[in-house]
Design brief:
This protein is an all-alpha fold and about 270 residues long. It has 2 domains: about 45 residues; about 210 residues, MetI-like fold, CATH 1.10.3720. Helices cover about 85% and strands about 0% of the residues. Helix 4 crosses helix 6 and helix 7 runs antiparallel to helix 8. It is globular.
């Protein structure tokens, strides 16, 4: 009798899982094909117009050869871009890391606090960096400060989510071991949870720094300084050769940042394995 009930329960569970995946596939397919049809409907003439390809190739042709003489005047812009990405990531880490313990279900002080902090993270993730940049430029003026604030606050929402999920996935056995030895909630966090999540948090932070470096160019377009400001200035003057030279610099810097982040990750993985 018990075997039959268990088989019946497994069959019902399997059916529920099948129906869940079916609904996911139906909804996902509907969204995709609706978006595709709408895009073709509103952009049919532009997509299949020969002028689109001609204009694109004409612009690319005007970019060559790149005018590298512009690089002599963008040293400050490079430093601003690097400083913007580093300080934005630092701001996000120092705020998101402690708040993530309130957002995680296994470390929060109260369910209300968890809902409140997760709501803050969601709100910060919802507003794009470019919109935040416009708001902060209007509030504090031009320069790298609005870029730091825009990238930093958006990163708080993203890193807070990642940190909280890492905290919720820790090994509860280690937490119980610390608790059984007389440890308090604070001791569990310090001696069990943080050591378990540290490598993941460093990895998340590095990825966010790499993202912020790329995004710092975008927020620079609305007056937040850095290479983005130089880029939009050249575009407004229709100096496409200068644009290409700046884009090459951005590409090289992005590769350097990615390489540095990967080097740290390899050290972390090597340290864990040893």
């Amino acid at each position: 009798m018990e075997i039959e009930k268990e088989l019946e329960y497994k069959n019902r569970k399997s059916i529920n899982v099948t129906w869940s995946w079916l609904w996911i596939i139906v909804i996902g397919s509907t969204i995709f094909f609706s978006s595709l049809l709408y895009t073709l409907f509103v952009s049919w003439e532009t997509i299949f117009s020969p002028n689109t390809v001609v204009n694109l190739f004409n612009m690319l042709a005007e970019m060559f050869p790149p005018k590298f003489s512009v690089l002599s005047g963008i040293g400050v812009a490079v430093m601003e871009t690097i400083a913007m990405s580093v300080m934005a990531t630092f701001l996000a880490v120092v705020i998101a890391f402690p708040l993530s313990f309130l957002a995680a279900s296994n470390t929060t002080l109260h369910p209300t606090a968890r809902v409140f902090v997760k709501g803050i993270f969601s709100a910060l993730r919802t507003v794009p960096e470019l919109i935040m940049g416009i708001i902060f430029v209007a509030a504090v003026g031009f320069g790298i400060l609005p870029g730091i604030l825009a990238l930093g606050f958006h990163s708080i929402g993203m890193l807070g989510k990642f940190y909280a999920e890492a905290i919720e996935k820790v090994d509860n056995g280690l937490n119980e071991a610390v608790e059984s030895s007389g440890g308090s909630r604070f001791h569990i966090i310090i001696f069990s949870i943080i050591p378990q999540i540290m490598s993941h948090c460093v990895d998340f932070s590095l990825y966010r720094w790499e993202y912020n470096f790329r995004a710092s160019t975008v927020v620079g377009l609305i007056g937040a300084g850095g290479l983005g400001f130089e880029l939009i200035s050249s575009l407004r003057l229709i100096q496409y050769q200068e644009v290409l030279a700046i884009l090459i610099v951005v590409f090289i810097l992005v590769q350097l940042v990615d390489g540095f982040g990967n080097m740290i990750r390899r050290r972390l993985i090597g340290g864990e394995e040893s």
